[in-house]
Amino acid sequence: MSAIHSKSHVFLTLQHRYDILRKLESGISQSELAKEYGVTDVTIRRIKSNAVQIRQQFHIRQPIQISDVNDQDKSRLSQFDELNARLHTWFLNRRAIGFIVTDLLLQNRAKELNQELCGSSSFSASKGWLWRFKRRHGIRYFKHHRERTSANAGTAEELSQMFLRRLEEENIKLQNVYNMDETGLLWKAVSQRLLVHAGEKAIPGNKAKKDRVTVGLCVNATGTHKLPPIFINRYEKPRVLKHCRDQLPVIFKSQKNAVMDRNVFADWLKNHFRPAVRKQQFEKGTRGKVLLLLCNSECHALSPEDQTQDDNFEIVFFPANEASYLQPMSQGIIETMKKSYRHRMVKKILECPGGVEEFYKNYDIKDCISVVNEAWIDVKQLDICKSWEKILGDKPIMELEALGDRESSPGASNIIAIPGIVQTIADENIPQQDMEESFSSSSEADDDLELEASDRRCTEETCLRRELYMDKVEINRMFMNLVLWSKKQPKFIKTLVQSLKSFHEYTQR
């Protein structure tokens, strides 16, 4: 019987090791056996030292015909062969339906199977065991992205036409078509790039803040019904909310990782979304079937009982890899809300007499909820209707034009005016691309956290790379330095600096 060879290793099955022991007893030397099986002398000596255990395992498992199993699989038989087989089957089934499987999920499932099989109480599914399990079954690490960066525009167009035909055939009104999606929010993060004068050696409280919450937004296609934001925090009963939990402007939920899961979603759907839509229909005197469009995520999966509770409500999932192209929330609604949140947060920092350090001492989860609600209110009806264009065409815009509402997004004029002021103060020509990135990438760190929420792998370096190039805190520091510098300059320079400062303050009103 020859050993099983691979490219870099020789695998000795239990049968092989038992045969080696028998040949050693018959008088064959260790060097001859090492040459016969293609292993080293050290391996033969190790088998000899473990003779008792090898014989015990062989006699226990002999009825299973171990040699045949290993000759087919070309791998060594694990001590927990049934557990490994069931875990591998579970892994393949999960991947077949598109679910994400991490190391932690594999370890937890292995522990559960060990208990079901009444296995060893000392089994802990350690990292070493996990490494061997993945190596044995050819499981490798792959960086997962929720959706492809380049969705198929042609397929998306076909899906849009099919959806429009369904709305027409079933006579579903646009005000009864809703979309909901959630996003991660680093609710204390501000820019780490600050200008300091020569006398400052360190800025207190300048470390990146990684406090994270999840915010879920839901609105209908016409923008006439914006539901209160879903606010998911790590802690169920924060002290600052002790006396105001029932008066919050958001739907407050708790989850240990501050992410959306099935329980949170099912509770929101049953106790908040459906009652709110029924109330809206009653107040507007409308009726009809309601569609809720969602991305095809595991956290949005419902039990059959929850799905069939009301025939007037139906959940429609975007096809895999097309949600990023079709989903209205991904077409600017979430981004607009986050920009408004950052704008309001920076404004609060500028208004704080003690600067960033004092701001962090006083800024708590209650303040965050208030700012999130204000930022959601800032999202205008025009912005919402435009975000539905890829799936509904220009129908929502046509309804909005009838109302005559053309109000632009909050803070747009300020964002346009500030780059010119910054270039004047800095006395240098800052590339337009850098200035645009400065005011358009405030939510990138939040988006990265969404991709890795289950593993919570956001590092400080990632947060620093994703921070703003130049925000209003930097501009404020510029003015502080200019004012200090101008005190020792001629009068006309003082006047110019003061004029620039006054103009900047005027644009912020």
Question: What does this protein look like?
Answer:
- There is one protein chain.
- This protein is an alpha/beta fold.
- The protein is about 55% helix and about 10% strand.
- The chain is built from 24 helices and 8 strands.
- Strands 6-5-4-3-7-8 form a 6-stranded mixed β-sheet, sandwiched between helices. A two-stranded antiparallel sheet has the order 1-2.
- β7, α11 and β8 form a beta-alpha-beta unit.
- α6 crosses α7 and α19 packs antiparallel against α24.
- It is extended and about 100 Å long.
- About 15% of the residues have low confidence.
Briefly say what this structure is.
It is built from 24 helices and eight strands. The longest helix is centred in the middle third of the chain and has 23 residues.
Task: Based on the model shown, name its key terms.
single chain; 8% strand; extended; two-stranded antiparallel ribbon; 24 helices; 509 residues; alpha/beta
Supply the helix-strand structural class.
alpha/beta
Radius of gyration: 31 Å
Mean pLDDT, all residues:
75
The geometry reads as: extended
Number of strands: 8
User: What's the end-to-end separation, in Å?
Assistant: 86 Å
The helix fraction, in percent, is 40-55%
Strand fraction band? 5-15%
Largest sheet: 6 strands, mixed
**Widest β-sheet, arrangement of strands:** 6-5-4-3-7-8
The DSSP helix count reads 24
Unreliable residue stretches: 63-78, 145-150, 192-201, 405-443, 454-470
